[in-house]
Amino acid sequence: MKPVPPPEGQRAADEAAVRDFIHQRFVEMFLSQSRRAQLGLLAAAALVAWLWFERSGGSAPLAWIALAGLVTLWRFFWTEAFVRGAGRAHETGRIVAVLALNGVLMALPLVGFAQFSQIGRAAVSIVLLASATASVATTAGFRKVFLAFAAPMLLPLAGAWTLVARDAARPLDALGLAALIVAFLLFLVSIARQNYRVFEESCRIRYGEQQLNRELSSALEQAGEANRAKTQFLAAASHDLRQPIHSMNTLVAALSLRALDARSREIVSLLASVSQSLSAQLDGLLEISRLDAGAVRPNLALHRLDRIAASHHAMFAPLARERGLQYRLTLAADPSVRTDSALLMRVLGNLTENAFKFTPRGGSVEIAVRREGGDALLSVADSGIGIAEAEQERVFLEFYQIGNTERDRSRGLGLGLSIVRRLCSLLGVGVTLASQPGAGTTVTLRLPELASEPPARADPRTGLALPAGLAVLVIDDELQVRESMRLLLDELGCKVLLAEGSEDAARIAASTRLDAVLSDFRLRGDDSGLIALRAVQALQPGVRVALVTGDTAPDRIQDAEAAGIRLLHKPVALADLLAALEPEPAAQGTR
Fold first, then answer.
1. What's the pLDDT tens digit per position in 365-389?
2. By C-alpha distance, which of 493, 494, 583 is closest to 543?
3. Which residues have a Cβ under 8 Å from the Cβ of 376 and sit 6 or more positions away?
4. pLDDT recorded at residue 584
């Protein structure tokens, strides 16, 4: 389809804008060169005045050079004010007037041309011809402006040579010089026309570039607005979805703690599986928002890359066996790297899940560690369906999935590789992807290798348990969430108190000793979990507090991180809830 040309009125407006731009560039160029050009003219005038005075004496040459000095002084300090004072419509006219004054001034010594010697006449002619030639550049060849300066010098010079021809020994030589001067002026007009054409074309190109830059800036601003709107939408949608899922998780967890028959336990197990699937998808949205908000801060330390790979391999081996995949670990090196092991394991997890997802039963997936130069390479390679070259960059975009036009949610939301790219950028890890359709895919992570081996790390604590009768205050403005949390905490043996907002929480804290407080981040109106927790802490400074939120908005995540209060994301896993409620060992011993 041919592009539709703009309407006639639009073309006229665009051309007027271009013409205005060219005019302004011309004025700016003239003013920027005005002082330097005037100093050159003053030097040329001094030479002519010396030749004139030497030949004729008298006061005329002295008066003329004094006048030239005054004009130079005026142009040096007041030309810009004179030109700009006319307004855009008349700036060119004032430039013409200024240059015409200079041209006439430079031609005044020609009144004594007959008194000059042949060498003097030649010298004056050379000075005037050189000044006219130089003006082709200083006026950008703008014909009206150029002629305003050159014609008042060269036409009188040709006339002066014609007049002295009557008394010359060889009059034809003088007449020939006069004709040559006129011909040279015409030649300069032709050169000026070409020079102005180049100037105009360069201005049009520059104008086009500025228009493109403005359009690009506008497009980038619109893209930024769209991205911010997307983030806000995801945050709002994630928060609204997390509320009921959090309640469902809490109720499922409470049910799982009760004595159930086999059929009921099967139903609870299925509910837990569905809830975990929904939670995993929402976790992807949350992680994208946290990364965009800058709320994820890597905890860099020295780690053995082969040990990270081996731990990851062991973690995913049962899933590989379940899917009938050959799952190999190749450790060709034992490099030490400075990284955040938890975030790097998250990257590995996303890559391995992708490899499992797109590798059919009987295929192979390999985790490999090797060295290359001064870098350590960690790769995940599969023998799966592969990725076409045209798709290889797009797979790192959010919500992009190959071959999932039906939007099968069992295959996720298409956030895994987008999270991989963000996390690798955060960790300073290079990512490369090599793939061919039908021949599998290899994703390689490149990390700078360090020399020292990291110290041994203690195993994380497991099997958390709560002391009986723990007093827990739950703050949430939604009745459903409060009641589901009460049921779960009751099953855990806690003494549960409920509050809708900051006022309720402060009233309860003033009359009841609390061990822990769990508060939703967003409460009604201007109230918030941060306000509620601070109110409780003001009354009971030693109480353990945690914010529970389904909000993924970057600014809210940053506020929570800045407050230094533990942050739990809905739906909250039981292990995370236990970890937040469990007393410190010293505190537990004093109960």
1. 999 999 888 889 999 898 888 877 7
2. 583
3. 305, 333, 335, 337, 369, 370, 446, 447, 448, 449
4. 64
Contact 174, 157 (CB under 8 A): no
Helix 262-293, helix 554-563: angle, nearest 10: 90
Residue that the structure tokens 């190959």 belong to: 402
The pair of structure tokens assigned to 479 is 């009745």
Residue 263 in tokens: 């059929």
CA distance linking residue 150 with residue 159, whole number of Å = 14
| List of E strands, 426-574 | 430-436, 440-450, 471-475, 495-499, 516-520, 544-549, 566-569
Instruction: Tell me how far apart the alpha carbons of residues 411 and 415 are, in angstroms, rounded to a whole number.
Output: 10
Strand pairing category for 430-436 and 364-372: unpaired
Q: ω before 360 within 30° of 0 (cis)?
A: no
Cβ atoms 242, 522 nearer than 8 A: no
Q: Are 139 and 149 in contact (CB under 8 A)?
A: yes
| DSSP states of 260-321 | --HHHHHHHHHHHHHHHHHHHHHHHHHHHHHHHHT------EEEEHHHHHHHHHHHHHHHHH
Element containing residue 537 per DSSP (H, E) = helix 529-539
pLDDT at 587: 47
Gap between the Cα atoms of 351 and 331, Å rounded: 18
Half-sphere exposure of 346 (CA within 13 A, CB side): 23
- The whole-number pLDDT of residue 155 equals 93
Residue range 256-299, pLDDT digits in tens: 777 778 778 777 777 776 666 566 555 555 555 555 555 567 77
Helix axes 529-539, 554-563, angle to 10 degrees: 10
C-alpha 443/C-alpha 447 separation (Å) is: 13
